[in-house]
């Protein structure tokens, strides 16, 4: 019969290994016990962290994940700002002050553009056209003096750009043209940041002190000291006539704040919601925003929205997100029918958008993803058409149709729908909205509709409906 031996630690190699030394002094014993306690504490902490990571991963998997896509300047970040304003009011309020530096940068950039055009005209260097009639200018010595005095704003623009990082530059660093298709440089551009604007916030304000950044403070002072000169040069009929002659419609360019200069330079200025949606800062890498959407009687739902860079060289960074997402919002700026891509002036911007749209609709990884089209910048489209710009001069297929807003916008919608139906997976519905995402009130209605549609679709896909 086999008898059970009482456990003998002298026979157990593990017990032997961790047993205290035979001649341990009281100090050594105290030290050993302290170290053992610390080790237990570290292990407990790791367990807790692992548990938290697991919960976070599950939360992420359960979240509604939305990718916002479109070419650069289409209005992706502005759409997400609307989401933030509506559903993440605390973060929105905390970040408000950080937009001041962006507004100031946008403002000085417009002034510097005006000065570039004026000095170019005065020196006989035609910046925007080769029209010989433009050599006759209504400019004089006053313009020259004002431009010279405002030269100090060049340094202010440089300082603010440095403060705000690479997104403050409209041009991409050197690096090849990927074309409208996705290039294979995924890793290189896949810079994930979960901080979004918070990164900028901490750069603009001291992260711990919350005090206004020196660069921003000096910029505000210098721009304030130039206010009268800026107003004189901007409101001058000669300047306006030169700008008109050069077809430099500054008022319609992103981040235009020259008409708000008195308000912006008043003491204690803080950007309004409208200022923030109108401010322009290019997205670099991928930024992530999280919201919890309260749904009245239903359980709240977590949302993760990804904002990506739209320039051609960054589009490869979109692909890894295709596998994760629930829905994709595609932003198509309709007003761009007469513009060229900044990164490749040979390509019409609307053609690039159509080409991207086709690629997205036919992408196999997105076969089950709900796609929602925002036909954006309708306010600028309307203005352009009313000012007499003819669509047929840029898109021949439009032919001799009426050049009014209703006809043009509905014709564009038909083109998007036709491309969609020819390329999408069967039974996926075509969902589209005409938008002007700087109109926050109208956009909030659109977002409610989008939210409902995405949740409904998600429930159907997960078998909950
Ligand atoms: N007038 C008008 N301006 C808009 C509209 N949508 C966006 N904008 C402006 O256009 C500029 C560019 O918008 P963003 O949201 O930064 O563009 P984006 O698609 O994120 O661009 P990238 O980050 O470069 O990819 C901003 O100054 C916006 O205020 C619109 O519907 N109407
Ligand atoms: Mg952006």
From TrEMBL:
GTP binds at residues 376-379. Keywords: GTP-binding, Magnesium, Metal-binding, Nucleotide-binding, Transducer. GO terms for molecular function: G protein-coupled receptor binding; G-protein beta/gamma-subunit complex binding; GTP binding; GTPase activity; metal ion binding. Pfam families: G-alpha. Residues 1-34 are annotated as: Disordered. Transmembrane segments: none annotated. SMART domains: G_alpha. Mg(2+) binds at residue 283. One of its GO terms (cellular component) is heterotrimeric G-protein complex. It comes from the Eukaryota. One of its GO terms (biological process) is adenylate cyclase-modulating G protein-coupled receptor signaling pathway. PANTHER family: GTP-BINDING PROTEIN ALPHA SUBUNIT, GUANINE NUCLEOTIDE-BINDING PROTEIN SUBUNIT ALPHA HOMOLOG. This is Guanine nucleotide binding protein, alpha subunit.
């Amino acid at each position: 019969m086999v008898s059970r031996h009482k456990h003998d630690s002298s026979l157990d190699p593990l017990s032997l290994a961790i047993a205290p030394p035979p001649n341990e002094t009281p100090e050594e014993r105290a030290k050993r016990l302290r170290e053992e306690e610390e080790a237990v504490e570290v292990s407990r902490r790791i367990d807790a962290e692992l548990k938290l990571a697991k919960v976070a991963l599950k939360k992420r998997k359960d979240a509604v994940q939305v990718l916002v896509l479109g070419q650069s300047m289409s209005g992706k970040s502005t759409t997400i700002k609307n989401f933030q304003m509506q559903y993440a009011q605390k973060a929105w309020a905390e970040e408000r002050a950080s937009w001041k530096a962006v507004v100031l940068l946008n403002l000085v950039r417009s002034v510097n553009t005006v000065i570039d055009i004026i000095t170019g005209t005065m020196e006989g260097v035609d910046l925007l056209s080769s029209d010989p009639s433009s050599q006759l200018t209504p400019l004089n010595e006053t313009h020259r003096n004002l431009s010279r005095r405002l030269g100090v704003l060049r340094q202010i623009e440089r300082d603010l750009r440095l403060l705000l990082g690479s997104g403050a530059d409209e041009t991409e660093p050197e690096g090849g043209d990927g074309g409208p298709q996705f290039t294979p440089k995924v890793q290189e551009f896949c810079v994930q940041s979960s901080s979004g604007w918070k990164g900028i916030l901490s750069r603009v304000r001291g992260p711990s002190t919350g005090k206004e950044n020196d660069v921003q403070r000096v910029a505000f002072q210098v721009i304030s000291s130039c206010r009268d000169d800026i107003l004189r040069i901007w409101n001058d009929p000669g300047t306006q006539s030169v700008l008109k002659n050069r077809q430099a419609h500054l008022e319609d360019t992103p981040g235009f704040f020259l008409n708000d200069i008195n308000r912006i330079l008043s003491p204690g200025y803080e950007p309004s919601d409208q200022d923030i949606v109108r401010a322009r800062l290019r997205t670099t890498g991928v930024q992530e925003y999280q919201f919890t959407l309260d749904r009245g009687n239903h359980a709240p739902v977590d949302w993760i929205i990804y904002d990506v860079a739209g320039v051609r060289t960054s589009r490869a960074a979109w692909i890894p997100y295709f596998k994760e997402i629930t829905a994709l919002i595609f932003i198509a700026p309709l007003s761009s029918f007469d513009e060229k891509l900044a990164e490749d002036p040979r390509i019409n911007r609307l053609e690039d958008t159509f080409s991207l749209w086709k690629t997205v609709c036919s992408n196999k990884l997105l076969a089950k993803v709900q796609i929602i089209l925002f036909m954006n910048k309708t306010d600028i489209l309307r203005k352009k058409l009313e000012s007499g710009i003819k669509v047929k001069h840029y898109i021949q297929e439009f032919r001799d149709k009426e050049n009014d807003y209703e006809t043009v916008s509905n014709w564009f919608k038909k083109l998007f729908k036709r491309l969609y139906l020819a390329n999408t997976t069967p039974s996926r519905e075509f969902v589209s909205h005409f938008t002007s995402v700087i109109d926050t009130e109208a956009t909030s209605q659109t977002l409610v509709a989008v939210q409902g549609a995405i949740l409904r679709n998600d429930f159907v896909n997960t078998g909950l409906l």
